[in-house]
Amino acid sequence: MHRREGSFPIRTLVLEVGSRRPLGVGAGGLAILSSIEEEERAHIIERVAPNLAAFGKMTAEDLAESCRQAHALGAAVIQNRVTLG
Fold this sequence. Notes:
- It is a single chain.
- By secondary structure, the protein is mainly alpha-helical.
- Helices cover 45% and strands 0% of the residues.
- The protein has helices at residues 27-35, 38-52, 60-73.
- Helix 1 crosses helix 3.
- The longest helix is centred in the middle third of the chain and has 15 residues, at 38-52.
- The relative contact order is 0.18.
């Protein structure tokens, strides 16, 4: 993927092109993770758990709860988790 930055003086870019995050850390990944079957979701959370602390000190339990909330709401929201503010 590629991006072009405009000339507006305020930048809100928090990711670099080509960077990677564990599934479920960003809103898009959380939407995907919350929509799959619970057994597969638990397996994925177990696999990504060792890498979660680097993202707002997230834990596997935090991610599982975020998945439950996203599934119940029908929308994935990440607020002040990965990048504060």
